[in-house]
C-alpha cells in the first residue's frame, strides 16, 4: 500500500484533481479497453485458440476495422466530453483524491456493491432497449455484431453509451468514492465486459471459477439469438436472468449441447 501511496502522491502533486478525474480516467480507460480487446481480434485473424472459439463464424478484417474506427470516434466525441462535463457531478457526489488511500476492505466492498448495482440497472435498462422502437433506433447498433469480439463491448449508439455510463456511475454516486477506487472499478468493469464479448471460452475463463458469473458464453448467446428472444440481459452475473426467467432458451440450448456431447 505504501508503494501505491507514493505513486498517488506523485500524481496528485503534479496534476490537478480535474486533470486526473477527466484526462487521467480517459487515458486509463482507453489503455485498458484497447489492450484487453485487441487479443481476440488477433485470435480471430490468426485462428489461434480456435478450439475455444464459441461460434464457428469469424468477422472480416473490414468489419473489425469499422468497429475500431467508430470506437475511436465515439470515445473522442462522446466519452471524453461526457467525462469533462460530468466532473462537477463527481465533485458533488464526494469524489476524493487525498491520502491516505482507502483501506482494501473498503475498496473491495465498494466495488462488489458497484458490480451488483450496475448489473441490476443494466439488466432492466437492457430489457427496455430490447423493446421494438428502442431496439430499432438505438440498441441494434450494438447487435450489428452477432459474433462479438472484445472491442464490440463498447460498440453502441451514443444514447446507449450514455445509459452505460449512467449504470456505471450510479454506485459510485451513492458512496462518494476515492478516485483510486473509481479507477479500479472502471478497470475491472472494462475487463469484465471485454471478456464477456471476447467470443472465446477458455478453460481459464472466470465463469469456470466464479459462481453466478456470466462471462463470454452467456453473453455470446445474447448476440446470436433474435432480438425478441435473446434473453441473458445481465452484464455481469446470471442470477437476474434466472430470477426473471430470461435465461430459459440459453439453458435449453446448453442442455441440448451437453446431451449431444454425451451421445457422441
Ligand atoms: Zn442486447
Ligand atoms: Zn453485448
From TrEMBL:
Signal peptide as annotated in the record: none
Domain Fatty acid hydroxylase positions: 112-246
One GO molecular-function entry: iron ion binding
Main localization (coarse): endoplasmic reticulum
Domain of life: Eukaryota
GO cellular component, one term: endoplasmic reticulum membrane
Membrane topology designation: Multi-pass membrane protein
Pfam families on file: FA_hydroxylase
Record keywords: Endoplasmic reticulum, Lyase, Membrane, Transmembrane, Transmembrane helix
GO biological process: lipid biosynthetic process
Protein family membership: Belongs to the sterol desaturase family.
Transmembrane segment boundaries: 20-46, 67-90, 102-124, 161-186
Subcellular location(s) of the protein: Endoplasmic reticulum membrane
This enzyme's EC code(s): 4.1.99.5
Enzyme class: lyase
UniProt catalytic activity: a long-chain fatty aldehyde + 2 NADPH + O2 + H(+) = a long-chain alkane + formate + 2 NADP(+) + H2O
The name this protein goes by in its record: aldehyde oxygenase (deformylating)
The keyword Oxidoreductase is assigned to this record: no
Amino acid at each position: 500500500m505504501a508503494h501505491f501511496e507514493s505513486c498517488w502522491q506523485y500524481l496528485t502533486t503534479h496534476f490537478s484533481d480535474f486533470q486526473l478525474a477527466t484526462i487521467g480516467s480517459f487515458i486509463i480507460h482507453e489503455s485498458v479497453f484497447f489492450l484487453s480487446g485487441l487479443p481476440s481480434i488477433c485470435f480471430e485473424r490468426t485462428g489461434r485458440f480456435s478450439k475455444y472459439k464459441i461460434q464457428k463464424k469469424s468477422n472480416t478484417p473490414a468489419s473489425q476495422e469499422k468497429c475500431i474506427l467508430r470506437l475511436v470516434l465515439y470515445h473522442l466525441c462522446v466519452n471524453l466530453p461526457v467525462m469533462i462535463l460530468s466532473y462537477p457531478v463527481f465533485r458533488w457526489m464526494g469524489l476524493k483524491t487525498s491520502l491516505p488511500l482507502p483501506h482494501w476492505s473498503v475498496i473491495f466492498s465498494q466495488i462488489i456493491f458497484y458490480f451488483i448495482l450496475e448489473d441490476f440497472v443494466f439488466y432492466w435498462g437492457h430489457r427496455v432497449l430490447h423493446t421494438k422502437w428502442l431496439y430499432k433506433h438505438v440498441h441494434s447498433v450494438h447487435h450489428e455484431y452477432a459474433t462479438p469480439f472484445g472491442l464490440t463491448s463498447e460498440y453502441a449508439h451514443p444514447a446507449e453509451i450514455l445509459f452505460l455510463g449512467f449504470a456505471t456511475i450510479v454506485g459510485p454516486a451513492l458512496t462518494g468514492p476515492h478516485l483510486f477506487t473509481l479507477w479500479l472499478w472502471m478497470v475491472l468493469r472494462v475487463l469484465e465486459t471485454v471478456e464477456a464479448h471476447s467470443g472465446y471460452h477458455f478453460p481459464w475463463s472466470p465463469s469456470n471459477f466464479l459462481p453466478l458469473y456470466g462471462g463470454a458464453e452467456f453473453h455470446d448467446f445474447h448476440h446470436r439469438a433474435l432480438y425478441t428472444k435473446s434473453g441473458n440481459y445481465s452484464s455481469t452475473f446470471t442470477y437476474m436472468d434466472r430470477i426473471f426467467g430470461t435465461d430459459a432458451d440459453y439453458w435449453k440450448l446448453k442442455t441440448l449441447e451437453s446431451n449431444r456431447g454425451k451421445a457422441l
